[in-house]
Structure formats: structure tokens, C-alpha cells
Amino acid sequence: MSEENKKWVVILIGPPGSGKGTQAEMLAEKFGLVHLESSKVIEEKIKNADPENQTLLEEKRKWESGQLNTPKLVRRWIIEKIEELALLGKSIVFSGSPRTIFEAEGEISELERSYGKENIKVIHLDLGEHGSVKRNSSRRICEKNRHPIPNFPEYENITQCPKDGSGIIRRVLDNLETVKVRYQVYLKETKPVLDLFEDKGYRIIEINADQFIEKVFKDILEQLDDKN
Ligand SMILES: [Zn+2]
């Protein structure tokens, strides 16, 4: 981490409410990493969709109606984004990708090719179902850039995003049943990605995410240091 010009990658994997977005923002700020979010990659692609491009229009329709975008396309777009950032010499932190084994398999090869296996750090933000449900029952994000507003006492009464001053909205899908389903989807679809990394010889950095933001961040920094 101390070598200024070394390109590296951090991948944060954890259930909804584990603070991936928050920790990714903090890491991005501290180390000058690009925070790569698949939702933003998708938005960027469909925002200026050519009216002649039926495939993109269909993806735009899915996006606007809240349906999942085609995994094959999302994976390709993310891989293209990785190539683009690698060419610019940027380091990356991922907070919502890979979400599935399918995404991971494509992304890992591209990341290893562009960054080298030894420069890829995989962090598991461990949080049980109870914690995930509790955190998500009041999940808030900012209007302008969708910065997650952490669900901690120090943020309880704020009305503006600390980063850009925009208003704060509550995500409507976060009712109890939805949150429980999302946790199960995480266990089934995303958590196996950690096993895939292990099978490929990575050491997973295990972090207890059921702690205050600053403590989680401190644990991450310590573990990243230990590795170098
Ligand atoms: Zn914001």
C-alpha cells in the first residue's frame, strides 16, 4: 500500500447492511481508489442509450421497472470498465460486485490479467441475518449520489448528505420480508464467491462487520497492513 504507484484492487463482499458501500467510500478516500459500483456502471451504459439499439433499450426498460439486468451484459460492462480503469492506471475498490459466481469468474480473470493476483485483496464483511435485517430496516441513501447513510447513532438525525449536502431518501424496498429475502439471496448467490476466491488460492480477510464504522475500518486497515 505504501508504494504510491502500485495499482491494486480491493473487493468487499458482505450481506446487505454490512457497510460495504460505506467502507468502500472510506477506502476510496484514504487510498485514492475508484469506487466501482455495478449500479453506476449500468446507469452509465443505459443513460445515453442509442434509440436504435434495441438491446440497450430493453435493459433500460428493465432498469427503470426495477428488474435485474441481463447478467451476461452486466458482467461484460463491468469487465470493460475494469479494462478502462486499468489502462488509466487506477486502483479500484468494489462494493457490490461480483454478486454471483458467474460475474466473479469473468471479473477475476480480467483483474488478474490487469492487476496481478498478488495485488487483489478480498475482504469478507461478516454479518449475520439478525444484524443485516436490523441495519436494513432503516436504510437511507442520499438523493444526488446515492451515498449510503450509515445506520449508526451519529447519523440518526442528519437531514443532508455529509458528502454532498443533498437530501436523504429512504429506499422503499427495505421492508422486513424483502430484507430477509435479500439476505437469503446473498447466502445462496454471493457468499459462494468467497469460496471461489479461496479455491483460487486467495486468503480472505475476515472482518466482523457488526461493529461501529470506524472500528470496522480500523480492522480493515490493520489487516491490509499485515498482508504487505
Ligand atoms: Zn451524497
Automatic annotation (TrEMBL):
InterPro entries: Adenylat/UMP-CMP_kin, P-loop_NTPase
EC number: 2.7.4.3
Reactions listed under catalytic activity: AMP + ATP = 2 ADP
Enzyme superclass (EC): transferase
Cellular component, GO annotation: cytoplasm
Main location: cytoplasm
GO molecular function term, any single one: AMP kinase activity
Keyword terms of this UniProt record: ATP-binding, Kinase, Nucleotide biosynthesis, Nucleotide-binding, Transferase
Domain of life the protein comes from: Bacteria
Subcellular location: Cytoplasm
Pfam family, one: ADK
UniProt cross-references to CDD domains, sorted A to Z: ADK
PANTHER family assigned: NUCLEOTIDE KINASE
Subunit description: Monomer.
Homology family: Belongs to the adenylate kinase family.
Protein name as catalogued: Adenylate kinase
Organism: Candidatus Yanofskybacteria bacterium RIFCSPLOWO2_01_FULL_42_49
